[in-house]
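Data availability (excerpt). The following record was deposited with the supplementary files.
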Amino acid sequence: MCITQDIQDTVLQLVRNADQLLRRTHLDAEGVRRRLQEVDTECENFMIKIDTRRKNITMAVSFFDKAETVGAVNSCLFY
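Predicted structure:
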């Protein structure tokens, strides 16, 4: 999952940059922290959805593998 790793790396770099910015300047620290929390939450939700999708795909592949096996066994038994 190259794309998900790229997204995770980008978000991590964003979090680090925001943290460094907060330490060096006197910007709206609370606003930046709030936005950073929103980005972190979105990233976490994205990773949960990716994990759920990966599990669903794995289950679907397993189902069709088993269905194919059952079909092959049935054709051997009934022909």
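Summary of structural features: The chain has one domain: 2-78.
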